[in-house]
Design brief:
Order of helices and strands: EEHEEHEEEEHEEHEHEHEHEHEHEHHHH
Radius of gyration: 22 Å
Number of strands: 16
CATH superfamily of the largest domain: Aldolase class I
Strand order of the largest sheet: 3-2-5-7
CATH class of the largest domain: Alpha Beta
Distance between the termini: 21 Å
Number of helices: 13
CATH architecture of the largest domain: Alpha-Beta Barrel
Helix content: 25-40%
Length: 354
């Protein structure tokens, strides 16, 4: 299928860039800002801050009401949960939620970001690689970006910043990743702090790249994923290679979907806690409309409450909230009975791509 590109308006004097729901400065908008400014345009940013979670209050936004003041309006939408709240007939929409086939034009993609669009930005963001070798059923990256390949150098992403958040989806899958890690280790000696915020693939850990990871100035926590109980042998092997880690220095994304057995979710959370690893529960969007949505919400709150998670069980967390009237008894009973596998209801739906 032929790729579709953002609609640039050459000769534009006033440009509005709309960030619907990004959690970080939106990289595509940063590059569009650079292109338009280099072509003499005045660029403004509008952040809508639409929440990802279903059920959160959202205002409908009609961008055509602003279009008369600008020569062109570009709007980036990342999450599908934002659709239905943003409207505009005269707006160039883009972003993962809009289309997996729409890219920036090459002349824009190759430009460095214009961080001034978001005011004071203290860390660089960007991709060293695009694509992935995996085909996780809940992930759009293989469809959107294809197979893994390098798209930028460390210098091109980092520039003059002393901190960087890399957006790569699977840096360890790149055949030359150790060369990149070695460069980051060397730059770390001069103060560069790095983080691969999408996580690292624990199945690809080796003694060699594990040693390089240990030498990085990394923060705040090394992140991996434990998305299915069948990956337990890989997680165990990976943890055996991370002997240099301190307790609670490693974090795991734990993907959950209502079709997954509760005992599998419980096993992964308790396994990671036993090995002194932090857990970040990645709830599929279908969890928010499921009969057990309150259970998934409380489990996410538990894993996010680091002081509780590192010292107490999930049942103790629920009981504490109930005893302090922070949680209705009915919800507390649901959580405890579900956790103890006495109240299990699985809905065989397919994971939602987001």
């Amino acid at each position: 299928m032929a790729r579709e590109f953002a609609k640039l308006k050459r000769g534009a004097k006033k440009v509005l860039l709309v960030d619907a729901d990004s959690k970080l400065p939106n990289l595509a908008l940063l590059k569009l800002s650079r292109w338009y400014k280099e072509h003499g345009a005045e660029v403004e940013l509008l952040k809508l801050n639409l929440p990802y979670y279903p059920g959160k209050k959202k205002k409908r936004v009609y961008l055509d009401e602003l279009a008369d003041r600008f020569d062109i309006v570009h709007c980036s939408v990342v999450f599908t949960t934002s659709l239905g709240y943003i409207f505009g007939e005269r707006v160039d929409f883009g972003g993962t939620a809009i289309s997996l086939e729409k890219d920036l034009p090459e002349e824009v993609e190759k430009l460095p970001p214009d961080y001034s669009l978001y005011g004071k930005v203290e860390e660089a963001i960007g991709f060293l690689t695009r694509g992935c070798i995996r085909k996780c059923k809940f992930c759009v990256v293989p469809r959107k970006e294809g197979f893994i390949r390098q798209v930028a150098t460390v210098e091109e992403v980092v520039g003059n910043f002393s901190k960087v958040k890399f957006l790569d989806n699977n840096i360890l899958a790149l055949p030359t990743h150790e060369k990149i890690l070695a460069e980051l280790v060397e730059r770390g000696r001069s103060g560069l702090q790095v983080e691969f915020i999408q996580g690292l693939d624990i199945r690809l850990l080796t003694p060699s790249n594990s040693k390089l990871l240990s030498q990085l100035k990394y923060g705040p926590a090394y992140t991996f994923a434990f998305d299915d109980v069948k990956y337990k042998p890989f997680v165990e092997k990976g943890l055996s290679l991370l002997t240099w880690r301190k307790p609670w220095q490693i974090r795991f994304f734990v993907y959950v979907h209502p079709s997954m057995p509760i005992e599998h979710t419980k096993f992964r959370v308790e396994f990671l806690r036993k090995h002194k690893c932090l857990t970040y529960l990645m709830r599929d969007i279908s969890c928010f409309s499921h009969p057990l949505r309150d259970f998934y919400t409380q489990l996410a709150r538990y894993t996010n409450s680091v002081s509780f998670y590192t010292n107490h069980s999930f049942e103790e967390f629920v009981q504490f909230q109930r005893s302090h009237n922070l949680l209705p008894h009915s919800v507390a009973n649901l959580c405890i009975s579900t956790w103890n596998l006495k109240h299990i209801s699985h809905t065989p739906t397919q994971p939602t791509l987001f």
